[in-house]
Amino acid sequence: MSAPMISLQGLSRTTVFDQSPARAKSGGCASSSCGSSAKPHEMDSAVWEKIKDHPCFSEEAHHYFARMHVAVAPACNIQCNYCNRKFDCANESRPGVVSERLTPDQALRKVIGVANEVPQLSVLGIAGPGDACYDWKNTKATFQRVAKEIADIKLCISTNGLALPDRVAELAEMNVDHVTITINMVDPRIGAKIYPWIFYDNRRYTGVEAATILHERQMSGLEMLTARGILTKINSVMIPGVNDEHLIEVNKWVKERGAFLHNVMPLISDPAHGTHYGLSGQRGPKAMELKALQDRLEGGAKLMRHCRQCRADAVGLLGEDRGQEFTLDRLPDKVTYDASKRETYRAVVARERGDRLAAKSEALGMVKTAGSGKSLLVAVATKGGGRINEHFGHAKEFQVYEASPKGISFVGHRKVEQYCLGGRAEDKRLDGVISTLEGVDIVLCARIGNCPEDRLKEGGIRATEAYGYDYIETAIGALYAAEFGSEPLAATA
Amino acid sequence: MAFKIIASQCTQCGACEFECPSGAIKFKGEIYVIDPKKCTECEGTFETQQCASVCPVSKTCVPA
């Protein structure tokens, strides 16, 4: 693995592994042990096979693989105080929001259209905009049509859990091996503050009674999925003052019932969205509050920290949304699936991953040898591939990593408004970026201008392009050693 | 003896269509419409009108 990967230029509009070959460094993998696997050591092989291409279930995979949601399931059987499906805006990113609803046939056309253009595509999810298990006829018809055309695409659903126990058998039959359940409480008294009503067994229930039914159905659905070996992710919306402390209890409950991942997401609350919480002034958590809760949950059910809370019609890598490129009016009337791009891409990823894994373990060694008890919060501008390959001014989000004696781990992302727009730097936006990066010590990017670099410095944040196009972990390892190592290297930041 | 849907408030989620025990609700063009000839207000079948009970927008499935 001495040579860096082949370029995928021309394979897709947005090439994932954006690297300038002259500068890109190999991870230093010299042995033949670098195979296609980048499996973390502690993970069971069968589980790794299931998640290695799923960007939501594997943080590692989210640097390489893309998901798409098709909005075929608009009907819902519960009302949540954070949801309002009436409102739609193309620029708005939050669950439950879509621009156009699709029939199963239209969805098939869209999936093929995307698969032909986006080689990173590995997962088809149905996440509403209502509930995939309640609006079952549409969900099932879509999966059946797509599975017939693209056999290797992973099928995945997201549900509130109320109708889930009725669908587990069919989900297993259709090889849906990833299910996400949104569970915000295990105490119906708290549930009553989140769900004004549910529709179950041909009537509407409200209050604690409604939350009790929902809770029981969620737990039984989760247990049934675990019994069948279907991997589950639990999404919890963190609502300050309502269920924030309670999510520790939720984490325990879902861990006991075999949940694979727990994803704690911040409440999105804005009066303009017209949700109950938005209108009543219920605030969402700050980035550092969310991180503090996630840190307290470490050691329980494994946490997902790379969620982007995407729309029910999102397309692309998690940090990007190309949904607007694939609206029905932009798709050809007749589409035929062409597997070649996806196959080529997979072969390249297999090699790249092994290389990155080696780089990662080397970086880990550097952090451990440094022998410091300190931790470092690093924000990275990346376009994917696990490399520092985005310009500071072009970043729409920063991936945040923490380096500490425990290792180097992805701890979250911070969404920002792009600072450079069409070559023009927006001063006001820079202030926003700086405040969003609160708590971060160092920003790593492919390029940064002197002016923003100085402004960041005034805000107490250092920024450097010294590690441009390196693997993220390689850079952080070197940085950590330079900062805290007993024999300081030449500091670059 | 029938319900109607206030089209301007409807989100077109279609939940009412598959809950309706009488097959009275259809998606026509851009909107869901209740056929007053078929609608029974769920009398004799359910305690409450299914369309109004499942509708996510208040006062959108109402007596005609």
UniProtKB/TrEMBL annotation, chain A:
InterPro entries: Aldolase_TIM, Di-Nase_FeMo-co_biosynth, DiNase_FeMo-co_biosyn_sf, MoaA_NifB_PqqE_Fe-S-bd_CS, Nase_CF_NifB, NifB_C, rSAM, rSAM_sf. Residues 62-311 form the Radical SAM core domain. The keyword Flavoprotein does not apply. Coiled coil: none annotated. Its cofactor is [4Fe-4S] cluster. GO terms for molecular function: 4 iron, 4 sulfur cluster binding; lyase activity; metal ion binding. Keywords: 4Fe-4S, Iron, Iron-sulfur, Lyase, Metal-binding, Nitrogen fixation, S-adenosyl-L-methionine. CDD domains: NifB, Radical_SAM. NCBIfam families: nifB. This is FeMo cofactor biosynthesis protein NifB. It comes from Aminobacter anthyllidis.
Automatic annotation (TrEMBL), chain B:
It comes from the Bacteria. Residues 1-30 form the 4Fe-4S ferredoxin-type domain. The keyword Cytoplasm does not apply. InterPro entries: 4Fe4S_Fe-S-bd, 4Fe4S_Fe_S_CS. Its cofactor is [4Fe-4S] cluster. One of its GO terms (molecular function) is metal ion binding. Keywords: 4Fe-4S, Electron transport, Iron, Iron-sulfur, Metal-binding, Transport. The keyword Thylakoid does not apply. PROSITE patterns: 4FE4S_FER_1, 4FE4S_FER_2. This is 4Fe-4S binding protein. It comes from Aminobacter anthyllidis.
